[in-house]
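Entry 12.
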Amino acid sequence: MILADEARWRLRLDEVRFIPAATAPHKPGGPSLAAGLRARLVEAAIAGDPGFTLSRIELERSGPSYTADTVEAVARDEPGADLWLVIGGDQLLGFAGWRDPQRILAHARLAVAPRPEHDRRVLSAAAAAVAPDRVDWIEMPPVGISSSVVRERLRAGRPVRHLVPCGVADLLLAGLDSSAGRE
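Predicted 3D structure (C-alpha cells):
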C-alpha cells in the first residue's frame, strides 16, 4: 500500500489499479489463496481510498495471467492513457525473463521501487538493459513488512493488525489466512 501511494503521489497518477491474478504463471499448482479471496483482501485494503481501484480483468480471463496480456488489454481499452507498471527492484532484476517484456514496455513505463538490499548501480544497469528510458524510480522509505512475515505471524498466532490495513486484518483474523481459501 505504501508503494502504491508513493507511486500515485510521485507520478501524479489519477489512480492505481490493483490487479489480482487468477492463475499466476510462476506458481502453477502451488499454494495460494483463492482468487476470489485475494480480490476481497484487495477490496478491504483499498476501501475508502478513491485513488485506489480493484480491476478484475485477470480474474475474468481464463488461463494463466500474464502481465503482457493485461497491459495490452488495458492500453487497448483506454487508448491514449499513460500507463505504469509498479514493481519492486527485485522484479526489475528478473524482468527480462518475464513473458514478452517488450510488449509490456510498448504500452507502459515501469515505476520501480528500489529495495534496500539491492545495489542501486545494479538496478540502474538492469533498467538500462531491459527497459532503456522506460523506468521511473519511486523512492520510498524502507518497509520491513511482507506477505511472508504476515503469514508467519498468523501461523504462530501472533497479531497482524499493525502490519496490514484493518479490513485485511479482520478478514485474516476471521480465519481467511494462508491455511484457508486455497484454490
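Annotation: Confidence is low (pLDDT under 50) at residues 177-183. Residues 102 and 168 are 35 Å apart (CA to CA).
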